[in-house]
Structure formats: C-alpha cells, structure tokens
Specification:
With 244 residues, this protein is an alpha+beta fold. 15% of the residues lie in helices and 27% in strands. It has three helices and eleven strands. The model has no long low-confidence stretch (mean pLDDT 87).
C-alpha cells in the first residue's frame, strides 16, 4: 500500500508540472467556417481578389518544391477535382476547421478530432528503431517538453495527399517537427518539414488555434457527408446533397 501511495503521489506531481490546454480548438484561419465548408477568410478574399497568405499553411503552397514535388503537385491538380476525402490525416488535421482536443499525461499527449482521428505523441520514449516502423496515415510521433512547449517529431507518414485531396504531396521520407505552446489565449505551433524527395529546402510555417466556444463536448462524425467539389477559383467546397 505504501508503494502504491508513493506512485500516486509521484504521478500527481508529474501532472502538476505539465501544461493544461482545455477546450476544443480550431485553426485560427478556419474559425467561423460554416457547413458550406468555406472559411470566412476565403469569403473575404473573394471580395478583395487576394487569397490570405496564411490560409491553411500546412498545405505548403509556397514550399520550395523540387522537380519531383512539382510533378506530384501537377498530378494532384489533374485528379483532385471532385475527389472524395478519406479523412484529414496528418498534417492537415492540425490546420482545419474541424475541432481538436489535447489530452496531456506524463507518458503521452493525445490529439483527437471530431472525425475520431487520433494522434499519439509518446513523451516517455525515444523514436523506435527504423526496422520497427512503417508508413501510416498519421505516422509515428515522439515528443518531449521544453518548459511549457511540446516538441514533437513525426516520421513515416504516408504521402498526405493520398488521404486528403487538399494535403501537400510530401513523401514517406518527410520529417515533421512541431513546437506547440500557449500564447495568451491561443495555441501556436512552429512547424518545420524536411523531405529529401520533394523539397529543395525545409518548409517552415506556423499554425495557430483558438478555442471554439460553440462546443461543450467533442461531437463525433464520419466522412459519409463528404461531397467535395471545386468552385470556379479552384477552392474546395462542400456541395449540397441532391435529394430526389
């Protein structure tokens, strides 16, 4: 009993040293997106004729793509119109209007979205041996805390564009590093992506989130309602369902 009590006290102390990021978070540039699937910043851009520079930064539109990266982008543009998504996947689930929730424990951080997509960020171990890894939709992530900043390294991600039509065409050799911390009432992540297959140089960007006050719990939904189309500007839309 004494040993159990000591373990419990130690665990309480570990939790006390960790940040707490309660609530349901949405990408700051996607906040306010309606069922039509178009963010307010995009609607405003249509009026001004200028797309905001920080609209879905993880799409990496301004990355230093090499020849293979450009080839993949052209192929995506050719086949993506009207294509249905399988989910957000990584990295796009981190830059979406879909709310995400952070659960922080001493051993791991769970990041969950409304489509039941879950990232497991292990903070109690090193990256597994390369012979024990294989590409998956969300890859393998390990992390550590530098003060109140969560530093995450993710590798072995299946090419994101094969899972979600709006994702960048990085290869399975890409390495993603995120540095997430609170800044006031916002969560901010500095992201660096390196990929010897598709990039001439690392892609660096920032993603931020604000709390979605419209949620008092995580609503779980699926992708049956994904009717993705493309408007005259090449922007993805959610088409109205045809009822006969």
């Amino acid at each position: 009993m004494a040993d159990n009590h000591q373990v419990e006290e130690s665990r309480v102390e570990q939790f006390a040293q960790l940040p707490h990021w309660p609530g349901y978070w949405v990408s700051e540039q996607q906040a306010g997106t309606t069922i039509g699937g178009i963010a307010p910043s995009v609607l405003e851009a249509r009026e001004t004729g200028e797309m905001p520079e920080n609209f879905m930064n993880l799409r990496a539109a301004n990355a230093a793509w090499n020849e293979e990266g450009r080839r993949r982008l052209e192929e995506a543009r050719r086949v993506n119109a009207g294509r249905k998504a399988t989910g957000w996947g990584f990295p796009m689930m981190m830059d979406a209007a879909t709310p995400i929730q952070f659960t922080i424990t001493p051993e791991e951080v769970l990041i969950v979205n409304a489509y039941s997509e879950v990232r497991f960020i292990y903070t109690d171990r090193e990256m597994p041996d390369e012979f024990d890894l294989w590409p998956t939709v969300r890859g393998t992530s390990v992390g550590h805390w530098e003060g109140d900043t969560l530093v995450i390294e993710t590798i072995m991600v299946k090419s994101p564009i094969e899972y979600f039509h709006g994702a960048p065409p990085f290869s399975e050799e890409a390495r993603y590093v995120e540095r997430i911390r609170m800044e006031g009432d916002r969560l901010v992540s500095d992201v660096t992506i390196t990929d010897p297959v598709t990039l001439d140089e690392p892609y660096r960007t920032q993603v931020s989130w604000v709390r979605d006050e419209g949620f008092d719990r995580m609503i779980e939904i699926d992708w049956d309602n994904d009717r993705t189309g493309v408007d005259e500007n090449g922007v993805n839309t959610i088409e109205m369902e045809v009822v006969e």
